[in-house]
Amino acid sequence: MPGEPLCVEEEFMPGPGTYLDDKGVVRAAIIGEPVFDMASRRVSVKPLVRKSALPKQGDAVVGIVAAVKEDVAIVKVIGFDIYAPFKNPITGLLHISQISDQRLETIYDAVKLGDLIRARVVNSYVPLLLSTKEPRMGVILAHCSRCGAVLAKRDGTLICSACGNVETRKISIDYMVTARRGSKKS
Ligand SMILES: [Zn+2]
């Protein structure tokens, strides 16, 4: 809590989210969790962000594809990013027309069950309507549908480093795993 004493200056230096009072006591400046860094001998307060607010139009979110049915993927929206998950996932819908600027023969060429995606929210109510047309949006992590290993991005497609399977997705430019140069199908 703001004003709460954390330590004295001799023990830990004041870091972000703290302040030093005139008696040499380091106190919390914000609501949050104190973090004592032994290596740098610095104390900081990690802010307690309450992002329970519902995503609204224009927000970027991440989610996991929970089902794919004909022209729609049902997405379990888990947070604004993977490091700050919501308390409870929110249902999102990604329609085939909102996936890419390129025409898709089938939705299965773009997203598959279990894919981790980043998407733009285009409405402000539940179910969230999602779009992945922007370059940063789309699949950011996927697994091989043959063997389950993580797929790596190579050129415009995804390749399985374990079995060599090549798959297509609407890949975000932020896809998390890149294939090593020279890696090839086995
Ligand atoms: Zn595989």
Walk across the major sheet and give the strand order.
7-8-9-11-10
Overall spatial form:
elongated
CATH class of the largest domain: Mainly Beta
The total count of strands amounts to: 15
Q: CATH fold name of the largest domain, please?
A: OB fold (Dihydrolipoamide Acetyltransferase, E2P)
Structural class: mainly beta
Query: Proportion of β residues?
Result: 35-45%
Structure overview:
With 186 residues, the protein is mainly beta. The chain folds into 2 domains: 5-47, OB fold (Dihydrolipoamide Acetyltransferase, E2P) (Beta Barrel), CATH 2.40.50; 60-167, Nucleic acid-binding proteins (OB fold (Dihydrolipoamide Acetyltransferase, E2P)). It has no helices and 15 strands. It has strands at 5-8, 13-14, 18-20, 25-28, 32-37, 42-47, 60-69, 72-79, 85-95, 116-121, 128-131, 138-141, 151-154, 157-160, 166-167. The strands form 4 sheets. The chain has a 5-stranded mixed β-barrel with strand order 7-8-9-11-10. β8 (72-79) and β9 (85-95) form a beta hairpin. The N and C termini lie far apart (57 Å). The mean pLDDT is 92. The structure holds zinc ion (ZN). Residues 144, 146-147, 149, 160, 162-163, 165 line the site of zinc ion (ZN). Zinc ion is lined by residues 144, 146-147, 149, 160, 162-163, 165.
